[in-house]
Amino acid sequence: MNPAIEALIERLLNIFGPPKVENPDAYLDEIRSAMNGCGHDAITKVGDMARDECKWFPKPAELREFAARAAAGMRKPVYSRDERRDLPPPTPEQAARAAALVAEMKRNIAANIVNLSGSATAERKPLMDTSAPAFERMQRGSQNLSMHEKPRTLTERSRAMTGETE
Q1: Strand 125-126 to strand 113-114: parallel, antiparallel, or no bridges (unpaired)?
Q2: Backbone region of residue 128 per phi and psi (left: phi > 0; alpha: psi in -120 to 50; beta: other values)
Q3: DSSP conformational letter for 131
Q4: Which tens digits make up the pLDDT trace of 113-164?
Q5: Which of 62, 70, 112, 114 suits a disulfide with 58, CB 3.0-4.6 Å?
Q6: Is 26 helix (H, G, I), strand (E, B) or coil?
Q7: Using CA atoms, how far apart are residues 26 and 109, in angstroms rounded to an integer?
Q8: Distance between CA 113 and CA 127 in Å, rounded?
């Protein structure tokens, strides 16, 4: 347990009283989880901000926002580095594979080719021409000719339904 987080929770309980939720212990565990990784100074500022800006017991998301604002004011990272995020550098094979994928993507973009199946052996088709003349040709050759006709005048029944007189 982080002593700074425990001090923050104790401070919040003193200021606001226990949270008015069905399971206060689970709520406090969510606050511990939300504040995990924040620096000691940021957590102290979070308590000050919650005291000054909240009328009721703050939600974990509010405390995270306060932590981000506090860290921005201190010009220090909000969260400490996580070992899971500190990945080792890629192997030469991984770097070569990534470079090959990027090169293939650049060639496909330049050739306007799409492969929707994701398979390397699938047939690759160029994208449709979406220029205005091509779109107009597609509309003219459409089976839905009624979509492109001018609207007809309203029938008497339609006029009565819409309230139009003409």
Answers
A1: antiparallel
A2: beta
A3: S
A4: 666 555 555 566 666 777 888 888 887 777 776 665 666 677 778 778 877 7
A5: 62
A6: helix
A7: 50
A8: 6
